[in-house]
Amino acid sequence: MKLTLRVWRQQNTDASGAMSTYEVDEISQDMSFLEMLDTLNEELILKGEDPVAFDHDCREGICGACSLVINGDAHGPERTTTCQLHMRSFKDGDTIDIEPWRAAAFPVVKDLVVDRSAFDRIIQSGGYISAPTGAAPEAHAAPVPKADADSAFEHAECIGCGACVAACPNGSAMLFTSAKVNHLNVLPQGAPERETRVLDMVAQMDEEGFGGCTLTGECATACPKGIPLPSIAAMNKEWLRATRKVSR
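Below the sequence we write its predicted structure tokens.
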């Protein structure tokens, strides 16, 4: 395939950015999107030009590092991570726009790389889980109802890629934060810090400058791991419960 790529180029956080146009040829439909970008960068390096900076790590859809907006969609036209998006999703002669996540809390580091450390600080604000140290307990020492276990596993699938923020018209991080809160709050091991966890994590989310949630649902649609929209409602209930308990 022969493709026209319009790629966001920005030298650093403080510099102004702009779209640059590149032509790539002989792109196989079996290539992943990141392999296609590797091909572009090889050509740029051979020409003595600065390669396009983009984030990646495992390339297996697990780590969430491959954060790109492709033709206006977080991670592209398929509901998957960018590294698992293949060029068969495009046609010969297509023009593809490639941009970084767009959110005030995700400043651009260079080109397509953004600083998502705000997510790390939200997680850190949740603190630790109180659990006895020593030998590993028996598997059935702390019985967990199946519905709670299923919910915890569902929310634990969040990989923190930030697609929810990039897709949200408000730049909200409510889906991400709710996944991290609900993952722990439904388990008995998370009960001791249940109230402080949700209050602290929501407060940190607001402090980071993420937008407010208006339940448009774009976050859940873009999430490559399928974190459900009702997760936000569940966290709101936890937050109200904790607020009332603390205010007594």
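The chain has a mean pLDDT of 94.
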